[in-house]
Amino acid sequence: MVCQEEVLISKVCELYSEIASLESLKPCKNVDTLFTELVLTCIPPSPIDVTKLSKNLQEIRSNLIRLCSIAEGHLEHHYSAILGSYDNPLHHLHIFPYYKNYLKLGLLEFTILSQHCGPQLPNKIAFVGSGPLPLTSIVLASNHLPSTTFHNYDIDSSANSSAMRLVSGDPDLSKRMAFHTNDILDVSCLEEFDVVYLAALVGMDKEEKNRVIDHLSKYMAPGAVLMLRSAHGARAFLYPVVEPCDLRGFEVLSVFHPTDEVINSVLIARKYPLSVVDQQQGLGSMILPNKCSDEIQAFNHPLNHGNIIIEELTLDDQL
């Protein structure tokens, strides 16, 4: 009898072959159909552990994530151009097919942030990997953080140009949003931000992702919050996975795994105080351990029809 995991892997490999053979990943009926089928294949909760896949399947997964990244970039540029043609682009965000998902994800991440940061709203947020359609920043700034300033970082100047056109005509957001064309590894002025968001596709393999996280750990202010997007189960065929143990220099507060159409998991962590960082440096490569508590609870999100698995992570009292 063929197990569910084998069926999943077979379907993903079949879709990968079709996607990899396409001449272009720009939006069109065939591209949209294939990626929709891929997403629908990977969304159902699955116990699969992608780290245990064979070397060949690991390569397919890595290539598939990069293809997803390219397709997502084309999709966002496409809709950003359409929205930019309107007199008031922000009044038409609903035409983007995944806008409702961003509304859900924005509320989820704001709720998580509020739970761990209390009533004091962040003054300045950096979003790393904002892209041509910076919906996370727009949703948070418009719906949840009305006085926060957002600094959006992207390595692509054309993405920033497209993004700026969307908010330039809005009297509020145009004052509270800045766009910077930089490789985040070249940015050291991160201590001014209360919260740093790291987009799912900044660093598309373990080595790249860890390099970015280590850079943020070095330059973020002690006590500042890091919000990252990851993937869980079969969704790891679509996005890179960040494990709590990857967050060197941070105390991991919680890991959230949505089970509905919101694909990305969310990790929230806090930069260790300087005293703790000094202790870690004095111990060489040793880091303060994080451990998962035995309790896994259901988080009933206001806009979520399903449940979100929460793994509460606590800091060991002693090394």
Automatic annotation (TrEMBL):
This is Nicotianamine synthase. Synthesizes nicotianamine, a polyamine which serves as a sensor for the physiological iron status within the plant, and/or might be involved in the transport of iron. It is an enzyme of class 2 (transferase). Keywords: S-adenosyl-L-methionine, Transferase. The keyword Acetylation does not apply. It comes from Arachis hypogaea. It catalyses: 3 S-adenosyl-L-methionine = nicotianamine + 3 S-methyl-5'-thioadenosine + 3 H(+). SUPFAM superfamilies: S-adenosyl-L-methionine-dependent methyltransferases (SSF53335). Its EC number is 2.5.1.43. GO terms for molecular function: nicotianamine synthase activity. The keyword Transferase applies. Belongs to the nicotianamine synthase (NAS)-like family. One of its GO terms (biological process) is nicotianamine biosynthetic process. It holds the Pfam family NAS.
